[in-house]
């Protein structure tokens, strides 16, 4: 449910056709600026994920010299252990695994990257769900010596479940299999066959050695048979602007701004982050739940008025009419409104030690709206390794994923997660502790 503030005026379009000239112009300008790419990484224990992240940070000059020198001193053996740049927790270093989600930032002249370093171990499924929920691209590491393992399939399934648009399989430690083209092609073909069963729209497989840097930034002379892009080149050039939903205008109101000062005596604006679609002054809009319609008088960004706003811009919308609008309301278009419902049918990843059970009372936070709800039914628990549905399950335990039906006390304004990731997801909150205990995706039963 993360939001991002974009301070530049951005182009956009009226709904409905993302292939219209105006929408294409929006995509071109969004691509022309230094885009932000959100990446989630996943891999089995000891696949070299932390080393790869360290390599990306080092080769993009995102670390200081004294940091590198400290890592070099702490390294054992003849190579600098770049994994020490990322594994900051003592428990991680002792066990040699990553157990928490950490966000790393680095940049190249073309793009800025936000990288969610997610854990690979099975008991940290909830951490991967958290890290990948807003990702544009997921990197799944596979050890060339081991090939596809159960956790590789689980990570690919979770990425497809969370509708991450782009998936990269980095076949690591190619140096330990003598740079075998046959080994690489075997893993590539097996992973491609598995991905064909899932909703993976874009799959790229790259042979690398994170330790030595082969095919990470520059092409390796050890893989003359590989003619594809290096990892960093692919990350810089993968096209993500068209992944944004420019069709369904959704603006959840986060805060009502009324300065009531001499300079802005009559100012009244509604602040929030554009979840999807495009908004422009003069557009006719509808406010939910009231259903009243009006037009947009103006849109203000952090640096002043903007002509158009689209995701993920943080803006303030001013309306022509003085309507009763508050936090949790949603601004959309009258002819293209989300579904207003109190019944939620969703896949839920449970993140608490105490199991989720039918008849349980819980709070649902969807965009900026929070309502109370009750668990009506648990349809099945999903085995993410085999995709088997256990219809006999009576509860969801820690890290379990299952189809859950909820009944809310007030309507929520939702879309299908496959169409709109921003308005198709929610989190579950324990009312007693205010702790986040689950994350849900609204998808059709099937």
From TrEMBL:
Keywords assigned by UniProt, alphabetized: ATP-binding, GTP-binding, Nucleotide-binding, Nucleotidyltransferase, Transferase
InterPro entries xrefs: CysN_GTP-bd, CysN_II, CysN_NoDQ_III, G_TR_CS, GTP-eEF1A_C, P-loop_NTPase, Small_GTP-bd, SO4_adenylTrfase_lsu
Pfam families linked to this entry: GTP-eEF1A_C, GTP_EFTU
Gene3D superfamilies noted in UniProt: P-loop containing nucleotide triphosphate hydrolases (3.40.50.300), Translation factors (2.40.30.10)
Class of this enzyme: transferase
Cross-referenced PROSITE patterns: G_TR_1, G_TR_2
GO biological process, one term: sulfur compound metabolic process
Residue ranges of every copy of the Tr-type G domain listed in the record: 34-244
GO molecular function: ATP binding; GTP binding; GTPase activity; sulfate adenylyltransferase (ATP) activity
E.C. number(s) listed in UniProt: 2.7.7.4
Stated name of the protein: sulfate adenylyltransferase
